């Protein structure tokens, strides 16, 4: 018995292990124990005690029974029938339930609703909807502003610029966009087809044509409408609306009910195909060919409106093309694409009003414009009421104002209906009785007839008589047809299974006659609260229900892809009597079950018909068809299953898919096979031993240590599995190393031979490119590895002076060795014997320091924008053949804003644009060269990582750890690749440069301190928000969850007096999915801490050295980036003002090269009290070049401001322009045009740098006149030879 029972207990479900402990006791007592799982408390000391009493109580109620025939007599005890009924006919009785039952009073809340009040309304639309323009206060914005037209399929395409007012009279759906701000509009233009209808009614009387206004609510029951909109319903009652209490839903699916409303077609489980094969073969087909009632109103020259804000399968009508004159759905699709779907606060915001408010106002606008013409308007509110039913209460005043504001003429000529499809599915499971079960089958139906309708009094009287009779969506359809053809005798609209509500409805209606799903019918239900959960037959009810559930799923067409369900007993299990007949009673049961492969519990309900006439269980019980229902969200767990009919749709909800992906060719699966990661592949090939080890260790841990929670066991199991995986990968990697060790040694011997040749041939200036430097010399025509830097300085331009000072910097000689400190400034890259090498160049200082192409000392001032454009043109150009790979291009006269700045009286400035090949050195080497040799700073205050002093044993332990854990990261990097729209584009080689405005360092530090993170994390979070916006713009609101960044990190003990590349690189997953800026900061900070503890940084530094020593052909694949979308670097610059070549440095920025397939690189550089963001983009990746780059930078600043506002950091003086004297203002700033006092708040310290005048130059050169002075005068034509011999 113990073995039999324990077979049903998953060894990984520790909560259930106590069953195995007590089974021997039960066996000795000769007790009949049924083998199925019981959910118990966590196995703590207290939990074991509690579990004992749980089991004792459970067994005493259900299992401690001697073998006997189950007595079902309690099912047939007489119970009282409620006196009040919604429907009380000879064939159907539906009891009245409380509007606010006890469980609702306990749990009542008002769900969060879209809060769009903070959205920026920056546009004005004229009253006649003809002209759109920017509001006065936004007309001077520098943001790009455009109008996008929205087509019928929900795609937005650029229409025109918005800097000037634009005529939009012919657009019915459009979006205005400025930067990241968006305003959406849906107008009522008069198309030629609509004008034809208007002309028709000008020549015909409208006295016999009646308007129709239908307002529907998704997942709203009649009771829920009453408790959510009390003020609105009170007004409607006074206005003469009739509440049809017997209105019954056909099924718990929107499409079933709306198909009956709008098409009069039946959808049932017994039908061979959907809609009786009249217009659509599957529930996934478009319904354009179906007899939608809107087409009949169109044929009658009615003006038609169809509007719903549902998504996908929740839409009442799945249409490929619009069938109404005004079809509003596409604009909702565009809004959902552009807005943040994960945050309901921003979802469906139309300018500064929510989607529901937009629909209400648009409905009112439609009726006011066409109140003199016959119209048919169908409006369906799905979001947010489908997912957040409690949010309906928020709109009570909105709907009240809508009905109060309607023109009396509309009431006099309009049939108004307010209805729904079904109630909330979860009500019964969360209730203490059957109110929720009854309520969800009774959606609302309120009807008001037109005041001027002929025989109005008689029709209204008939309508009131029908209020207590059983009605359905088919009756709504017949009423539509009746009002459309009101002159036709009403008997034509009173059929057997449907009737106009203005005709008397028969009393003999049943659910079967109305095509109501049997398991959803509440006719003859009782509100009796008799609970059967303590009855002796509850066990049989649950077992039978599980068998029926599995049988129904496994016997369906998709059953082969579904797992078996297993019972889980919980305190919430309950059974209620809901109906009775002479020999049977209907029992409503709620229960829990879990898939066989997991311990996650799911909620179900079922209706069983129980009889007392027979002896066997199978004869006593039967399933009410269609009554099994899953009442929790199943998400994407069965997304692979593709349903084609209503039966599949029902079974899909009951299925827990055993295959999330499949390579099957079966048409029932709509998924592609996605191979797992290499780790899973490796483990799957030898997973038996790890599984046995894991189970053994886990079992011992349970029995010995008795951990307090199952999560600890899962953690232990995960770590064991990870250890085994690392061991396997380490052995695989070790075998590769052993196999390739000899060939690699041969290559190193050849490398040493090439080094010897270079030394003999070129002396001191002949050198192999060091292994770490190889990463910086992997050029391609589309992406050359060139670092760029722009430096703006005060003073006049003296080109000769700049050349002399530059020569002193690059030609510095080590006094001890007599060799050049920076020999790479005199060398060129070449390839010898398959290896990269350095060779002497044809050096000429006049070539390396010169004016930017097209400029000279007499050129006019260059603006910031023009300088960026000119620098961008040459940033990817190759260096001149035979010349060293660096140059300083001079802009003699530079001003930020030439048009608005007083150039004549302004401080004179020049700029130098530095281009230096990455092979010479990395960004940190370049920055230290600038500070020490160009700025003559004695101390370098750049924080760089230092190698801590550790013991030898610590070092050995670290090495072993990295050797063991490193292969996992190595293989992951080999197989990882970003999949997003930007990675599908190809770089063109044409680059554009941009930099942001100056951002206050103190501002960023304040955010950093508030969030207790780093400045890099803060800036990356803001950039991630900007990247998310860009993806939304280029891909219609779609964006990846994350993008990978290549991030260089300086190695410890970076050398001071050398130009080298000493850094490691990592792949950093930048999370961009979250709309919450604080959440993005947490995600990025978490990833950063994870990487800091991983061996990836050290491993990559080792791999760069190892691969860089190989020949170019073998090394190139290691350094060709195909995994990451972007490159990012953050360098902290000087914290004080410095001088470059004896000129005060006003501003500075650097730009990274692109790496491999990446087309975007971003850099952060601080200087003094401000920092800038630099962006390099490839026009093949960002087609709009400079504008696109500036837009991303502006969005980055906006995201930074948004983050500050959310955490309560002041946004005054965020961005500072020291030349225009204005400050960036956030939305909360009340006066955007006031001048900023940011300059007075600047924290930069004006510290004089050490000046070096002409005399000092002479003194410096006099130290070595034989070489330095002659080299400067002669152009250094022979300097390289002299230095090499020395």
TrEMBL record:
Transmembrane domains' residue ranges: 681-705, 726-750
Endoplasmic reticulum in keyword set: no
Residue ranges of domain O-acyltransferase WSD1 C-terminal in the record: 1061-1185
Stretches with biased composition (Polar residues): 1232-1243, 1263-1272
Lineage, opening ranks: Eukaryota, Metazoa, Ecdysozoa, Arthropoda, Hexapoda
Protein name according to UniProt: O-acyltransferase WSD1 C-terminal domain-containing protein
InterPro entries: DUF229 (IPR004245), O-acyltransferase_WSD1_C (IPR009721)
Alphabetical keyword list: Membrane, Transmembrane, Transmembrane helix
Any one of the GO CC terms: extracellular space
Chain spans, region Disordered: 1212-1286
A Pfam family: WS_DGAT_C
Biased composition (Basic and acidic residues): 1248-1262
Domain of life: Eukaryota
